[in-house]
Amino acid sequence: MNALYNLSIFLYSILIKITAPFNIKASQINKGRRQTFAILQGSIKHDRPAIWVHCASLGEFEQGRPIIETIRRQYPEYQILLSFFSPSGYEIRKNYELADCIFYLPADTQRNAKKLIELIRPEMVFFVKYEFWFHYINELKKKNIPLYLFSAIFRENQLFFKNTPWAKWYRQMLHGFAHFFVQDQKSVELLAGLGFRNVTKAGDTRFDRVAEIARNGKNIPLIEKFKGNSQLVIAGSTWKPDEELLARYIHSHPDTKFIIAPHETKHGNVERLISLLKTPVICYTEATEESVMNKQVLVVDTIGLLSSIYRYADLAYIGGGFGVGIHNTLEAAIFGMPIVFGPNYLRFNEATSMVGLGVAFPVSDYDTLQAILSDLLSDDTKRASISLQCTAYTNQNLGATNIILNKVFNKF
What we know:
Elements: H1 2-19, H2 24-43, E1 50-55, H3 58-74, E2 79-84, H4 87-93, E3 101-104, H5 110-120, E4 124-128, H6 134-142, E5 147-152, H7 165-171, E6 179-182, H8 185-193, E7 199-201, H9 206-216, H10 221-227, E8 232-238, H11 240-252, E9 257-262, H12 267-276, E10 281-283, E11 297-299, H13 306-309, E12 315-318, H14 330-333, E13 339-341, H15 349-357, E14 360-362, H16 366-378, H17 380-396, H18 400-408
Parallel strand pairs: 1-2, 1-4, 2-3, 4-5, 5-6, 6-7, 8-9, 8-12, 9-11, 10-11, 12-13, 13-14
Helix pairs in contact: 1-2, 3-4, 3-9, 5-6
């Protein structure tokens, strides 16, 4: 099985190199991995202990951020080393000021794992949510360096819980973790079924992150001018299928204002979205407080703004539900509002919980979308009730960061 795994890692690395000239993400991974060891050699200082935090991409970084920032605040003696697998995480957060060093994770080979760990000499390591890399985990175990998995979710259909030769080999990686901090009781039970007792139900650190965003949010006069006295729907991280449904609603409800923040903010995609909208529309980067007042739609064509503008919404639509899965619902939920999204949401604990509470509403077609949006926007009393329930739900789920770090640093 080791040989098959090594072959798959080798073939993936070759594929990245072959496609790099034609694919920007492959090019970024290829270039970034080549620079990793030089970056580390120029940044690591062994006069201070190091903590290594690894995130797959930007979403996992948002889960890791409360851990990083609390360590930085409470344990300033540590260097914090931050790695990414994906360009969508690294390229956006490569200048994150609270990490001492930020790098691409090299391909998971035995040689790379040994070289990287010997170079950074971490005192402890945190992997976020779904990261399972055989050689890195194995090398950390060999060196008795504690490895923690947090904000994790385990499901019955994962390879760990199947009864095949490949699954049995894959399960070995779980023995490399010093402790699992999981989001739900089902994950506790699944790991217990495999004999693991080093498990704590801590919850999801994203709740702590969005609460921090809400506490530190600032007024944005341009958004205030755009909204005026109108009702405002904010559609975040949208894709083409989301936008096509929303456009139909926008065109038939000219008195309702919309902010659309597409998942992809490249010029071509923003131009496609604008061409879909047959109503007064303006891009955020071109808008002024005067020019937005007579527009129905504001398109956010820049990154980093979405989580701060949800505070102005009467209702939020979260994109991705007509594809592989919805994006971050908690950024909107923390501000207490009804949330709408497409049908592919069942892999997300917070989304299923909010649907069960009656504060989030899945839609599968335009008729459903039209009915739900019209009902919610026309009923102030219902929205107020949902707001209270939504706020209570997010408040009840705060505290994962403290649970994790109190356990890790033996503070009881």
